[in-house]
Design brief:
Oligomer: single chain
Number of helices: 3
Shape: globular
Strand content: under 5%
Radius of gyration: 13 Å
Length: 71
């Protein structure tokens, strides 16, 4: 079981939109898997560094997802 605590509905909605986009786009999903593995090595157990490493990719995917799903 996973529990996600979020401070805003906007954040949660962006999380779901990115999740759904990655489920439907194999190329981006594979790239995200690669980036996550790199982030683990880079962060060395520091959660903040791990999240920061993935941030630009996730922002790009969020923009693509919002564009696709808003049509």
């Amino acid at each position: 079981m996973h529990v996600h605590l979020v401070l805003s509905q906007k954040f949660w909605n962006s999380f779901i939109v990115v999740r759904d986009y990655l489920r439907n786009h194999n190329k981006e999903r594979k790239e995200y898997a690669r980036i996550k593995k790199e982030a683990v090595k880079h962060a060395k157990g520091e959660g903040k560094k791990y999240r920061r490493y993935k941030e630009s990719f996730l922002e790009k995917v969020l923009r693509l997802a919002l564009k696709e799903y808003s049509n």
